[in-house]
Each structure stands twice: as C-alpha cells, then as structure tokens.
Amino acid sequence: EAQVTQNPRYLITVTGKKLTVTCSQNMNHEYMSWYRQDPGLGLRQIYYSMNVEVTDKGDVPEGYKVSRKEKRNFPLILESPSPNQTSLYFCASEGTEADTQYFGPGTRLTVL
Amino acid sequence: EDQVTQSPEALRLQEGESSSLNCSYTVSGLRGLFWYRQDPGKGPEFLFTLYSAGEEKEKERLKATLTKKESFLHITAPKPEDSATYLCAVQADRGSTLGRLYFGRGTQLTVWP
Fold first, then answer.
1. What is the mean pLDDT of residues B12-32?
2. In Å, how far from its chain's centre is CA A45?
3. Chain A contact set for B101 (CB, 8 A)
C-alpha cells in the first residue's frame, strides 16, 4: 500500500529539548515536503526536497532543519523548540510523474 | 508573489442543497491546481488536479473546474459525509520550485441533514 508515515503522531516536549519527527514514503518519490498547519493560517510549507541531498526553504523555515540522506526518508529536526512551534505537522511526497502530493497522517506537537 | 484565496471561509448547506466553493489564484506560470479534502486532525486527501483553463474533473458529487484566474469546486446534492474542510493549492511551473505548493486557507463545509 502506497503511503507516507510519520512518527511520532503526538509529542509533548519542553522548550529547548531537541526533537526529530520522522517521515518515510514507500512510493520512490523524488519530492518530499514538510508543512505546518495552524488555525486561521492554513498549511504553510517549511522545507522541501527535490531529491537526495537537495533541499530548499519553504515559507516558514526558521527554527527547523531537514536532511535527505535517503530517498524514502525526510526527517524534520527542531534543534531548540519554542512554544510558537506548537502546531500540527504534515509530511508529503510527490513523484515527477505524479498528479499530486500525498500527505502523511500528521504529528501534533506541543512545546511547553 | 504566488497567492491563493479561498471563499467562503465557511459554508453551511442543507443536505441536497448544491453550491460552489471558490479558489482564486495568482501564480507566474501554473503547473497545476489541486483540490484536497481534509477531515479534522487528519492529513489532506487528494481530490483533483487541474492543469489548464477549461479543464473539468468529476468525482461522485464533486466537480472541479478551472479558468485562468480561479477554480470552482461544485458540490451537487451534498450529504452530511461531505462535511470537511476543502483546500485548494497551486504549483508553479518553474523548474527550481517544483515541489512547492501554495495553499489557500480552506473552506469549512458543513452539511446538515
């Protein structure tokens, strides 16, 4: 089954404690993205990757890092989380021949 | 700057009452316009991709259309299970930005029996 998986699905942490949210896709897609979704602001792209070792900033990259060492994985790293990074995060992937981006189930992050 | 505006923000319909959702966009070279459905707490679910003005796509009670400046999602005889937030997104046709999607804020649709 074609899918995008994210872990963890829920995370409560404290300010400054480094965390990583993992994302994996089994569709051999070239493109992968991270989004955050906040009430009233909609979905905003954080970072995206066009292929292994190729990444670029989206609309709201501050405070986040990404890496793309393997085609299937695209982890999101928060080196020093702050309360304003409390949000619902989605990973997505897209192939060059695909019609659309496929989204993961989401990770709800709370930073205290 | 690429932008996407959806209207209305919220829409309440009685079961069977047809209506349309609007997505207006400004993008320098459109590669594709996408419609998604999102249920609370879940990831967006793909509905349609439209590539050029005049294109139409249908799926059950939903029909999406595209002009050079906007897209409409027509809902015919909706049912309560159609209640969700409908998201519109555009992707620009620029090689360096393939993979970038710009989303509107969505239309929250409620269909009551």
1. 93
2. 9
3. 33, 45, 92, 101
Inspect the interface and report whether the beta carbons of B98 and A31 lie closer than 8 Å: yes
How distant is the Cα of B46 from the closest Cα of chain A, in angstroms? Answer: 7
Binary contact (A100, B49; C-beta < 8 A)? yes
Residues in chain A, how many?
Answer: 112
Q: How many Å lie between the alpha carbon of B47 and the closest alpha carbon of chain A?
A: 9
Choose from A6, A48, A100, A109 for mutation: most chain B CBs within 10 A.
A100
pLDDT tens digit sequence for A32-56? 999 999 988 889 999 999 889 989 9
Rounded Cα distance between B113 and B111, Å, is 7
pLDDT of residue B100: 78
Predicted local distance difference test score (pLDDT) of residue B31: 84
- Residue B65 · residue B72 · CB < 8 Å: yes
Sign of CA dihedral A101, A93, B43, A76: negative
Q: Do A103 and B98 touch (CB under 8 A)?
A: no
DSSP string, B47-86: EEEE-STT-EEEETTEEEEE-SSEEEEEE-S--GGG-EEE
* Distance separating alpha carbons of residues A10 and B64, to the nearest angstrom: 34
The residue assigned the tokens 């954080």 is: A46
The rounded Cα B50 to chain-centroid distance in angstroms is 10
Beta bridge partners of A3: none
